[in-house]
TrEMBL record:
Lineage, broadest ranks: Bacteria, Pseudomonadati, Pseudomonadota, Gammaproteobacteria, Oceanospirillales
Protein's cellular compartments: Cell inner membrane
Name recorded for this polypeptide: TRAP transporter small permease protein
Functional note: Part of the tripartite ATP-independent periplasmic (TRAP) transport system.
Signal peptide stretch: none
Superkingdom of origin: Bacteria
Family: Belongs to the TRAP transporter small permease family.
Length: 190
Protein backbone atom coordinates (compact mmCIF):
# COMPACT_ATOMS: atom_id res chain seq x y z
CA UNK A 1 0.00 0.00 0.00
CA UNK A 2 1.19 3.47 -0.78
CA UNK A 3 2.56 5.48 2.10
CA UNK A 4 3.17 8.64 0.13
CA UNK A 5 2.56 12.03 1.71
CA UNK A 6 2.57 15.23 -0.28
CA UNK A 7 3.49 18.83 0.24
CA UNK A 8 0.75 20.95 -1.25
CA UNK A 9 -2.98 20.36 -1.50
CA UNK A 10 -5.36 19.14 -4.14
CA UNK A 11 -8.27 21.38 -5.27
CA UNK A 12 -11.12 21.33 -2.74
CA UNK A 13 -13.56 19.26 -4.83
CA UNK A 14 -10.89 16.71 -5.72
CA UNK A 15 -9.71 16.50 -2.10
CA UNK A 16 -13.32 15.95 -0.98
CA UNK A 17 -13.76 13.08 -3.48
CA UNK A 18 -10.49 11.62 -2.24
CA UNK A 19 -11.67 11.80 1.39
CA UNK A 20 -14.99 10.17 0.43
CA UNK A 21 -13.13 7.30 -1.19
CA UNK A 22 -11.03 6.90 1.95
CA UNK A 23 -14.11 6.95 4.19
CA UNK A 24 -15.97 4.44 2.02
CA UNK A 25 -12.98 2.07 1.95
CA UNK A 26 -12.46 2.24 5.71
CA UNK A 27 -16.17 1.74 6.35
CA UNK A 28 -16.35 -1.25 4.03
CA UNK A 29 -13.43 -2.88 5.81
CA UNK A 30 -15.80 -3.65 8.68
CA UNK A 31 -17.75 -5.92 6.36
CA UNK A 32 -14.74 -8.24 6.28
CA UNK A 33 -15.14 -8.81 10.01
CA UNK A 34 -18.89 -9.35 9.62
CA UNK A 35 -18.22 -11.75 6.75
CA UNK A 36 -15.79 -13.79 8.87
CA UNK A 37 -18.23 -13.96 11.78
CA UNK A 38 -21.13 -15.07 9.57
CA UNK A 39 -18.93 -17.67 7.86
CA UNK A 40 -17.82 -18.98 11.26
CA UNK A 41 -21.47 -19.19 12.34
CA UNK A 42 -22.36 -21.07 9.13
CA UNK A 43 -19.65 -23.65 9.82
CA UNK A 44 -20.65 -24.07 13.47
CA UNK A 45 -24.34 -24.42 12.59
CA UNK A 46 -23.63 -26.90 9.78
CA UNK A 47 -21.15 -29.18 11.52
CA UNK A 48 -22.32 -28.99 15.12
CA UNK A 49 -26.07 -28.71 14.66
CA UNK A 50 -26.65 -29.95 11.07
CA UNK A 51 -28.37 -26.66 10.23
CA UNK A 52 -27.88 -25.15 6.79
CA UNK A 53 -28.87 -21.60 5.84
CA UNK A 54 -28.83 -20.57 2.19
CA UNK A 55 -29.62 -17.01 3.24
CA UNK A 56 -26.51 -16.86 5.44
CA UNK A 57 -24.33 -18.45 2.75
CA UNK A 58 -25.53 -15.94 0.19
CA UNK A 59 -25.04 -13.08 2.67
CA UNK A 60 -21.33 -13.94 2.80
CA UNK A 61 -21.22 -13.82 -1.00
CA UNK A 62 -23.04 -10.45 -1.01
CA UNK A 63 -20.69 -8.97 1.61
CA UNK A 64 -17.68 -10.23 -0.31
CA UNK A 65 -19.01 -8.69 -3.51
CA UNK A 66 -19.66 -5.35 -1.80
CA UNK A 67 -16.16 -5.25 -0.31
CA UNK A 68 -14.46 -6.35 -3.52
CA UNK A 69 -16.40 -4.08 -5.88
CA UNK A 70 -16.89 -0.93 -3.84
CA UNK A 71 -13.48 -0.86 -2.13
CA UNK A 72 -11.61 -1.06 -5.45
CA UNK A 73 -11.45 2.76 -5.60
CA UNK A 74 -9.97 2.81 -2.09
CA UNK A 75 -7.37 0.30 -3.27
CA UNK A 76 -6.61 2.52 -6.27
CA UNK A 77 -6.24 5.50 -3.94
CA UNK A 78 -3.61 3.59 -1.95
CA UNK A 79 -1.86 2.22 -5.04
CA UNK A 80 -2.73 -1.30 -3.94
CA UNK A 81 -3.69 -2.83 -7.28
CA UNK A 82 -1.34 -5.32 -8.88
CA UNK A 83 1.29 -3.78 -11.10
CA UNK A 84 4.46 -4.97 -12.78
CA UNK A 85 6.88 -2.33 -11.58
CA UNK A 86 10.26 -3.56 -12.75
CA UNK A 87 11.02 -0.19 -14.33
CA UNK A 88 8.48 1.94 -12.49
CA UNK A 89 9.96 1.65 -8.99
CA UNK A 90 13.31 3.04 -10.16
CA UNK A 91 11.74 6.10 -11.78
CA UNK A 92 11.71 9.57 -10.31
CA UNK A 93 8.36 10.79 -8.92
CA UNK A 94 7.57 12.96 -11.96
CA UNK A 95 8.19 10.07 -14.35
CA UNK A 96 6.02 7.80 -12.16
CA UNK A 97 3.31 10.48 -12.20
CA UNK A 98 3.46 10.57 -16.00
CA UNK A 99 3.15 6.78 -16.28
CA UNK A 100 0.27 6.80 -13.78
CA UNK A 101 -1.49 9.69 -15.54
CA UNK A 102 -1.26 7.99 -18.94
CA UNK A 103 -2.38 4.67 -17.46
CA UNK A 104 -5.35 6.36 -15.80
CA UNK A 105 -6.42 8.27 -18.91
CA UNK A 106 -5.80 5.59 -21.55
CA UNK A 107 -6.38 2.34 -19.66
CA UNK A 108 -8.44 2.82 -16.51
CA UNK A 109 -10.99 5.33 -17.82
CA UNK A 110 -11.82 3.56 -21.12
CA UNK A 111 -12.13 0.17 -19.41
CA UNK A 112 -14.42 1.56 -16.69
CA UNK A 113 -16.58 3.35 -19.27
CA UNK A 114 -16.78 0.06 -21.19
CA UNK A 115 -17.81 -1.76 -17.99
CA UNK A 116 -20.61 0.74 -17.36
CA UNK A 117 -21.89 0.70 -20.93
CA UNK A 118 -21.86 -3.09 -21.24
CA UNK A 119 -23.40 -3.72 -17.82
CA UNK A 120 -26.34 -1.32 -18.02
CA UNK A 121 -28.55 -3.65 -20.05
CA UNK A 122 -27.66 -6.59 -17.83
CA UNK A 123 -28.41 -4.63 -14.66
CA UNK A 124 -31.60 -3.00 -15.97
CA UNK A 125 -32.97 -6.42 -17.02
CA UNK A 126 -32.36 -7.65 -13.50
CA UNK A 127 -34.08 -4.59 -12.01
CA UNK A 128 -37.07 -4.96 -14.35
CA UNK A 129 -37.91 -8.34 -12.84
CA UNK A 130 -36.45 -7.64 -9.37
CA UNK A 131 -34.31 -10.73 -9.84
CA UNK A 132 -33.91 -12.80 -6.71
CA UNK A 133 -31.99 -15.84 -5.64
CA UNK A 134 -32.57 -19.00 -7.67
CA UNK A 135 -32.45 -20.97 -4.41
CA UNK A 136 -35.37 -21.28 -2.05
CA UNK A 137 -34.64 -19.27 1.09
CA UNK A 138 -31.97 -17.19 -0.64
CA UNK A 139 -31.63 -13.42 -0.67
CA UNK A 140 -34.23 -11.85 -2.99
CA UNK A 141 -31.85 -9.11 -4.13
CA UNK A 142 -29.73 -10.35 -7.04
CA UNK A 143 -30.66 -7.14 -8.85
CA UNK A 144 -28.88 -5.20 -6.08
CA UNK A 145 -25.85 -7.45 -6.37
CA UNK A 146 -25.66 -6.82 -10.12
CA UNK A 147 -25.93 -3.08 -9.49
CA UNK A 148 -22.49 -3.28 -7.90
CA UNK A 149 -20.97 -3.63 -11.39
CA UNK A 150 -21.71 -0.11 -12.67
CA UNK A 151 -21.29 1.27 -9.14
CA UNK A 152 -17.78 -0.21 -9.05
CA UNK A 153 -16.92 1.36 -12.40
CA UNK A 154 -18.39 4.73 -11.38
CA UNK A 155 -16.38 4.81 -8.16
CA UNK A 156 -13.25 3.82 -10.08
CA UNK A 157 -13.85 6.67 -12.55
CA UNK A 158 -14.25 9.18 -9.71
CA UNK A 159 -11.08 7.98 -7.99
CA UNK A 160 -9.36 7.84 -11.38
CA UNK A 161 -10.16 11.54 -11.82
CA UNK A 162 -8.69 12.25 -8.39
CA UNK A 163 -5.56 10.29 -9.29
CA UNK A 164 -5.27 12.00 -12.69
CA UNK A 165 -5.40 15.43 -11.01
CA UNK A 166 -2.94 14.27 -8.35
CA UNK A 167 -0.49 13.03 -11.02
CA UNK A 168 -0.96 16.16 -13.13
CA UNK A 169 -0.22 18.32 -10.10
CA UNK A 170 2.93 16.30 -9.41
CA UNK A 171 4.00 16.77 -13.03
CA UNK A 172 3.43 20.52 -12.83
CA UNK A 173 5.18 20.84 -9.46
CA UNK A 174 2.10 21.92 -7.48
CA UNK A 175 2.23 18.72 -5.44
CA UNK A 176 5.51 17.19 -4.31
CA UNK A 177 5.72 13.61 -2.99
CA UNK A 178 7.63 13.58 0.30
CA UNK A 179 10.22 10.89 0.92
CA UNK A 180 10.68 8.95 4.14
CA UNK A 181 13.59 11.23 5.00
CA UNK A 182 11.42 14.34 4.60
CA UNK A 183 8.53 12.82 6.52
CA UNK A 184 9.87 10.83 9.52
CA UNK A 185 6.45 9.53 10.62
CA UNK A 186 6.26 7.56 7.34
CA UNK A 187 8.90 5.13 8.66
CA UNK A 188 6.33 3.84 11.14
CA UNK A 189 3.85 3.01 8.34
CA UNK A 190 6.32 1.16 6.11
Amino acid sequence: MSTTSYSGELPAVIAKLDRCSELLGRSLSWLVLAMMLVQFLIVVLRYMFSVNSIFMQESVMYMHAVVFMLAAAYTLRHDGHVRVDIFYRGMRPKRQALVDLLGTLFLLMPVMIFVILTSLGYVSSSWRIFEGSPDSGGIPGVFLLKTLIPAFAGLMILQGLVEAVRHWWILTGRLVPLTVEQEPHLKERI
